[in-house]
Write a structure and sequence with these properties.
There is one protein chain. With about 110 residues, this protein is of the alpha/beta class. It has five helices and five strands. The chain has a five-stranded parallel beta sheet with strand order 2-1-3-4-5, sandwiched between helices. Strand 4, helix 4 and strand 5 (about 85-90) form a beta-alpha-beta unit. Helix 2 (about 25-35) crosses helix 3. The radius of gyration is 12 Å and the shape is globular.
């Protein structure tokens, strides 16, 4: 799991062995997506979607997008189209994220 976010910390790193890429670290995000086999990118905000768009567009393989809420899901659809695999957290909480990842695992993997 790769998480993009503006600030703060992410609990998914401990739970899922994930990597957090903060805005302004485009090179870090590019390295993670090109050199590792991650199945999902978690977006916590529309700003994170915008920040990540260039790098995510460069990646030719399909990844799952996880939106932390409906506003972020809308940004994903606007930036990447409606045909991408995605799930949205029903509740914008760490537990909601875990539930969304579990749903994605059942649905897509």
């Amino acid at each position: 799991v790769v998480a993009t976010q503006s600030s703060g910390s992410s609990g998914i790193n401990a739970e899922y062995g994930g990597v957090t890429c903060r805005e302004g670290s485009e090179g870090s995000l590019r390295a993670v997506l090109y050199n590792r086999m991650y199945g999902a990118v978690v977006f916590f905000s529309p700003t994170g979607v915008e920040y990540s768009a260039k790098v995510v567009h460069e990646v030719e393989r399909a990844v799952l997008f996880v939106a932390f809420g409906p506003t972020t899901e809308k940004a994903i659809v606007e930036m990447f189209g409606d045909d991408r695999r995605r799930v949205t957290c029903k509740n914008p909480t760490p537990e909601g994220l875990v539930e969304a990842l579990e749903l994605a695992r059942q649905k897509f993997f």
